[in-house]
Amino acid sequence: MRDFTKLEMWQLGMDIADEVLDIFEGIPPTQAGFKLRDQATDASCSIPSNIAEGSSRRSEKEKFRFFEFALGSAFELQTRMLIVQRRKWADPQRVDALLSKVVLVQRKIGAFMGVLGA
Hints:
about 80% helix; about 120 residues; de novo design (two linked rop proteins); mainly alpha; elongated
């Protein structure tokens, strides 16, 4: 079994999850903010979680499926953070930096899926 903690995309996913949690600590507690926070934090935690789970699978097809889930979560998170950005709920530079990392993790996951080719 492979040590998923050594995968750059997993490490990046963990950094993203930390940053999302930090950003949402500063967002005012409104009904919309709570729901968006829950969805964004779930999506951000799902990225490294699915990478880890996919790494445990033996077949290429199973690995591909979990990396596909991780990629979907990254796109979901990107959308949630674009909403935060449009609503001006967080520091724009901080959100921009996070969005850059999200795009990077999307590229890394996509490239890995290309290698799997399942």
